[in-house]
Amino acid sequence: MTKIKAVYIFCFAFLAYFLLYPLAHVLSQSFVADGRLTLSIFKIALQNYAVRRSVINSFILGIMVVISTTAIGAPLAYLFARYRFPGKNILRPLFFLPLIVSPFVGAIGMMQILSRFGSLNILLMNIGIIKYPIPWLGSGFAGIFILETLHLYPIMFLNLSSALNNFDVSSEEASYNLGGSFLQTVRKITFPLLLPGYFAAASIIFIWALTDLGTPLVFEYRDLISVQIFNSIKDMNTNPQGYALVLFVVLITFLLFILTKKLIDKRPYTTGRTAAGFTEKSLPAKKLLFVYLAVLSLVLISLLPHISIILSSVSKRWFFTVFPSQYTGESYGTVFAHHLTKTGIFNSIFLSSASTLIDLLMGFTVGFLLARTKFRGRNLLDLLVMLPLAIPGIVMAFGYFSLFSNTLLDPRNNPVILLIISYSIRRLPYIVRSTYSSFQQLSESVEEASYSLGADTITTFKRITFPLISPGLFAGGVLAFSFSVMEVSSSLILAVRERHYPIAKVIYILAGRVTDGPYVACAMGVLGMVLVGLSYYISSRLVSRKIGEFFRIG
After folding, report:
1. CA angle at residue 448 from 446 to 454, to 5 degrees?
2. Can you give the pTM of this predicted structure?
3. Alpha-carbon span 150 to 524, nearest angstrom
4. How far apart are CA 39 and CA 123, in angstroms?
5. What is the mean pLDDT of residues 458-465?
6. What contacts 242, CB < 8 A, 6 or more positions away?
């Protein structure tokens, strides 16, 4: 028992120092000026026109993305949950593909399609629909909105699909029996019962859009909170504006989650009965063609970032044409030959491997403590482990840069330790949840039977516990590794010197290189896309779960 208590104290201390302490440091610096407490930092920040515009733009972007993902995800979820039609099981997995490409990487490829003389405008002019190119991306805001929508609508789709399958469908049937129309039933019965799943997805989507850093940097759009925070790192010792913006993001994040919880807890969302089974309706032949056209069009549009990245990666020349005029594999050769790309690949593999090893050890340990012990601090440890899901990556990275500057861990000298810890803490919740659920499914009587037959603790662990827990543990580990390889916020902020650049920082640097930079960046993006896709597949096979379940929030 003493050893278990010591392990608990170590886990708690590690999370407190590398999670709570940096966050507390940033928040405290937001109220300190010239060695005294003050609120003047906020006044100074908000007096800056660029900051005010960035705050407003970020809010508008978050709200627009929530609305657009709702408009796509809600009808889609209802269609796939309530109706039966040929090809349904083939089409469903295609909606998860947008999640394997970060909008940060997708933005590089989409610029080739949506720019002023990109593929779309060239195509429309060639067939005579338009005479002059249309600025689809505008100043860059429209491109960010499009990429965020295409990347995040599957999260809305997954959560609403899960909610639709988990409530009593007889409530809808009762509404129809009482004369309610389809729209009345959806508005007064169906949607209110879906609110928990909807609010969970909407909160995550809003915060994701609010704090995404890579996409606006690629589109060179500066008037967003995330970019202002990124730029403020250069003069954080003389200009406290960054601290005020980070505090603003933290407050918005927690207020949003508190508001969501209050709205959900305010009224019951159950019918008092378990979910009743229902028979999927068949789509009428007249509507089937429309459904296929709509769904396939959505899939095609969703895959545009993937297509553009792949085409760009094999392009030698792609100017003023719908498709590349010359193809080559030189970009992939450069990926494995150029000193910068080789450095990025090596650094990312090393950093991600180290962080995943930490996650595996801590994830198993914390999962065991939560599932098999009764210490008074279990709930606090559980809260700390899940807290990284509620803290945007840019906030953690800024906190690390601020707290550890001019110390032994100063990222300007060597960010390796901070990058490993940052990657680890950001992905720890996935492994803990996966391991914890595996422990819950493993009856303690199995382990007790081993002890009763004379096996000691080590033998029971090697032959009973670990073999049964390992699929969930390693499934989470594979996902943690792939997420870490393509981590954006921590990589862009903490990696200052070229020799420490991970893949994300290399892609960002290459995207701005005039010659073959974007093509090589896309080649690296394709490799990342393949890695993430394989990781999801391997993880789903390890734990016998569908790929989409890894992204479900509720």
Report:
1. 115
2. 0.83
3. 21
4. 54
5. 78
6. 228, 229, 232, 233, 236, 398, 402
